[in-house]
Automatic annotation (TrEMBL):
PANTHER family per record: QUINONE OXIDOREDUCTASE PIG3-RELATED, QUINONE OXIDOREDUCTASE-RELATED
Enzyme class: oxidoreductase
SUPFAM superfamilies: GroES-like, NAD(P)-binding Rossmann-fold domains
Ranges of residues in domain Enoyl reductase (ER): 11-324
Protein family according to the UniProt entry: Belongs to the zinc-containing alcohol dehydrogenase family. Quinone oxidoreductase subfamily.
GO molecular function: mRNA 3'-UTR AU-rich region binding; NADPH binding; quinone reductase (NADPH) activity; zinc ion binding
Name of the protein described by the UniProt record: NADPH:quinone reductase
Key words of the record: NADP, Oxidoreductase
Organism: Dyella jiangningensis
EC number: 1.6.5.5
Signal peptide: none
Pfam family, one: ADH_zinc_N
SMART domains, sorted: PKS_ER (SM00829)
């Protein structure tokens, strides 16, 4: 019997239900994909709690890797037996499942050097890191960035990629354990925000100048500290809202704090063009296959344990990447 996680109302992790499902034949443009591993991302909690509204009942999860079992009409990019990975947004919702029908277009063939667990742990996080490092800002070696949640899945990849570009990385974490992990993966300096002032420490570490770019995946609770950490004409990149969405503010604030730039990018817009997606995926796969970037899978869950997985994620108990093993 095949299974999937579904939910019927927005709310806490307890709304998630592990249910039996039946999966038929793929329609035109679809494949039937048997999952081997499924990614667990903080964005999943936004669908579950209603931050990202979707029709209910619905499935959850937007990232997984597995083997193509059947293909529908007009599918040209993959074939039966191919190992693939995918990530997306609403068009791939429902990844928390043992097998599913999914549009063929988002599927990315996997090279032999990348196994399914690694792929599920890194496709969304890795492509996010790829566009942050290669599309958002024209980095020059020697520049300094501030990276929030440096011990998280995206954070560990970004910090390693940043070092490949010759950047100085200041990471923020909540515990000394996470500080050690961040340092092991490329952070030159680490700010423990549980007892250090982020902006004051960032200024101190940059001789009062501030950093060139802040990558802020926390949101509401760190927004002002992030702005205050930037150099004149620095760039604030809002890449997540783990602590809540940023309240409305007067854009004049950006001028008052040094003519700052602000962007709120979404992965979907950076991989919408197939050529861009293929290039970013190739860069990511090359770095991982060569060992230049290591993917840390620090939590593995059974699919039926999705409630506990979401509790751990929201309680900041996880580091690196988390996956469901099918």
């Amino acid at each position: 019997m095949e299974h999937a996680i579904r939910f019927y109302e927005a709310g806490s992790p307890d709304v998630l239900r592990y249910e039996p499902i039946q999966v038929g034949a793929p329609g035109p443009g679809e494949v039937r994909l048997r999952h081997q591993a499924v990614g667990l991302n903080f964005a999943d909690t936004y669908f579950r709690n209603g931050t990202y509204p979707i029709p209910l009942p619905n499935g959850i999860g937007v990232e997984a890797a597995g083997i193509v079992e059947a293909v529908g009409a007009d599918v040209r990019n993959v074939a039966v037996g191919d190992r693939v990975t995918y990530t997306g947004f609403v068009n791939t919702l429902g990844a928390y499942s043992t097998v599913r029908l999914v549009p063929a277009a988002p599927l990315i063939p996997l090279p032999e050097a990348i196994d399914s667990e690694t792929a599920a742990a890194m496709t969304m996080r890795g492509l996010t890191a790829a566009y942050l490092m290669r599309r958002i800002y024209p980095f020059q070696a020697g520049e300094t960035i501030l990276l929030h949640a440096a011990a998280g899945g995206v954070g560990l990849i970004v910090s390693q990629w940043a070092k490949l570009l010759g950047l100085r990385v200041i990471g923020t974490v909540s515990t000394e354990e996470k500080a050690a992990i961040a340092r092991e993966h490329g952070c030159d300096e680490v700010i423990n925000y549980s007892h250090e002032n982020i902006a004051a420490r960032a200024r101190e570490l940059t001789d009062g100048k501030g950093v060139s770019v802040v990558f802020d995946s926390v949101g509401k609770s760190t927004f002002m500290a992030s702005l205050d950490s930037l150099r004149r004409r620095g760039l604030m990149v809002c890449v997540g809202t783990a602590s809540g969405t940023v309240p409305p503010f007067d854009p004049q604030l950006l001028a008052m704090k040094g003519s700052l730039y602000l962007t709120r990018p979404a992965l979907a817009d950076y991989i919408a063009d197939p050529a861009d997606k293929a290039e970013l995926a190739q860069r990511l796969f090359d770095h991982v296959a060569s060992g230049r970037i290591k993917i840390e899978i620090n939590q593995r869950y059974a699919l039926e344990d999705a409630v506990q997985a979401h509790r751990d994620l929201e309680a900041r108990k996880t580091t690196g990447s988390s996956i469901f093993v099918i």
